[in-house]
Write a structure and sequence with these properties.
The protein is α+β, with helices and mostly antiparallel strands and 382 residues long. The chain is 44% helix and 20% strand. It is elongated and about 80 Å long.
């Protein structure tokens, strides 16, 4: 392979990883780009899970053998099955730099290979109808991260020393792409996470609720929203200090997360200040109300604070058509507003107050259901 062709392959690999949205796309781009660059028929990217002592396969691309999935859930290999792995899977390299790639074949060690280290891989190559492979360790921030594996089928030209050297270069490009993808993932996580409680934030709720209401309109999926206001936070802040108030918020956040776990896939979030919510997509309205009731009970048992005012709105209840996230939020917020006014010790549920439900009437006859909803949606289109 000419130098210009290889340079183009490196550029294509880097561009593919840079254009990826999320880790999975980055993994696929890394394995696929390396496979094409090396003229392979199959490639895999694996990560070293130090705490479990194993290499876990993240992605398989190309001509997959029986049992190989693109994104496998449980394909992993104990490090002790591959003695050569221990040669590079340690904290740092004393001489600086990183390890080089090497070649193995279905017939045993390749020229420049690693005799004595090939037994498991040779068996795997033969079992899957592959003739040779090149293995390139991936080093991230001076530490072993995992490996890039590219194979060719039986009967195809065997990888040579030049291919191994090129694979070492490709592994460096992959490492840079993975580092960038991880930075972007962390940035996305922070953008949708409340720093104090670790719960989702308002931005995450807005995005998820818009998607959920669209699913409800399209497929009839049940969407339920629990909006709650933590009582007594101002008193705690004024009398015991904001550090104690923060502890109250953190403790309530843990209670909210615990109760949210009663609803598969529910999103627990802090909207800001003393306002929190649970968003459930799929569970029945009664299950959501039950979880909200447990939330009220547990919040009332917290050492600090004065319980919680909790409102629930679900598309499964008689609340009228829900065509926008704004309407469901308005209904839940109106229910929470009523719970606070009545000092209710259990959730107030929109649509369950009879033919002339006061919560639905409140939500439908005011520009905004309550103070929290007004703050959230000021300036937004209906």
């Amino acid at each position: 392979m000419g130098e210009d062709i290889r340079l183009a392959a490196v550029v294509a690999l880097a561009q593919g990883m840079a254009a990826a949205h999320g880790s999975r796309e980055a993994w696929r781009a890394a394995a696929g780009g390396a496979c094409r660059a090396l003229g392979g028929s199959f490639a895999a990217l694996s990560v070293w899970e130090r705490e479990l002592g194993r290499l876990r396969v993240l992605v398989n691309v190309g001509e997959r053998a029986a049992g190989e999935e693109e994104f496998p859930d449980g394909e992993a290999y104990p490090v002790h099955q591959f003695p050569e792995i221990t040669e590079f899977l340690h904290e740092r390299w004393a001489g600086g730099g990183g390890p080089n790639a090497w070649v193995e074949t279905a017939e045993g060690p390749a020229a420049g290979g690693r005799p004595g280290y090939v037994h498991q891989r040779v068996a795997a190559l033969r079992r899957r109808g592959r003739g040779s492979c090149v293995v390139a360790p991936i080093v991230l921030n001076g530490r072993a991260w995992g490996e890039l594996y590219v194979a060719r089928p039986a009967g195809a030209p065997v990888f040579g020393r030049g291919d191994a050297d090129f694979a070492t270069v490709l592994a460096s490009v992959v490492a840079a792409g993975i580092a960038q993808a991880e930075r972007l993932e962390e940035a996305r996580r922070l953008a949708f996470t409340d720093a104090l409680t670790g719960l989702a934030n308002r931005r995450a709720v807005d995005v998820r609720l818009d998607e959920a209401v669209e699913r409800h309109r399209r497929d009839g999926v049940v969407v339920s929203l629990v909006v709650c206001d933590l009582n007594g936070l101002k008193r705690v802040n004024d009398t015991l200090g904001h550090a104690v108030g923060d502890r109250l918020l953190e403790r309530f956040g843990s209670v909210l997360s615990l109760c949210g776990a009663m609803l598969p896939g529910a999103l627990a979030a802090r909207l800001g200040g003393d306002e929190f919510c649970l968003l459930a997509v799929g569970p029945a309205a009664d299950d959501v109300v039950k979880a909200a009731g447990e939330l009220c009970r547990r919040a009332g048992e917290l050492e600090l604070g004065e319980g919680v005012a909790c409102g629930v709105a679900s598309t499964e209840d008689p609340i009228g058509a829900v065509r926008s996230a704004r309407r469901l939020f308005r209904l839940a917020d109106a229910a929470q507003y009523r719970a606070k006014a009545e000092r209710a010790g259990k959730p107030v549920v929109a649509g369950r107050g009879g033919a002339d439900d006061p919560v639905v009437r409140l939500a439908d006859t005011t520009p905004s259901g309550g103070t929290a909803e007004r703050r959230r949606f000021r300036g937004r289109r209906p």
